[in-house]
Amino acid sequence: DQQVKQNSPSLSVQEGRISILNCDYTNSMFDYFLWYKKYPAEGPTFLISISSIKDKNEDGRFTVFLNKSAKHLSLHIVPSQPGDSAVYFCAALNAGGTSYGKLTFGQGTILTVHP
Amino acid sequence: DTGVSQDPRHKITKRGQNVTFRCDPISEHNRLYWYRQTLGQGPEFLTYFQNEAQLEKSRLLSDRFSAERPKGSFSTLEIQRTEQGDSAMYLCASSLGTSGRDTQYFGPGTRLTVL
Description:
Shape of chain A: globular
Strand content of chain B: over 45%
Largest sheet of chain A: 6 strands, mixed
Order of helices and strands of chain B: EEEEEEEEEEE
Oligomer: heterodimer
């Protein structure tokens, strides 16, 4: 029962171009969504989040879009840099429920940014 | 700020042996989480503590698994009678606050290999 899905295992983009990573979810109780970035031999690092009451959140080069009706979110990185090469995980939680802080993760997408 | 630390970083054991992992959260973080990540998957929630109280456990946490956080500071995760299916990366995270939306900071993980 994969409640959060990242259907693209990998993505390759050229430096300076836009990277778009996608994520779908099935649980309508999720009301808070996050993106984490993971480098090899390190734990995931929080990148950006969005509440279900919003449809967009921006932080520098990173923007997350949420389409609640489609149960879909995406992460845009503009412009992409070689240092952005990492595994990106989408995560979701029901912040208002009893499972406080229990993150449900997608499978991850490996982003490679070529110089 | 030393971040979340985990010990050991790698553990190789034989099937049937017991293993124990330790997690030291960021100082004064009251919430502590354990996740498990297998190859090609995102982290999966195992359990979490609010101070010393274990408030939720996943169905993934069989009777062979036990976690403690005796003084509300560091935590240990013990696996008894290990099986090959226990081979995974075990991640610990901590957060400050009482909201599920509080950012979780992850440690580098302990990689367990069961032979």
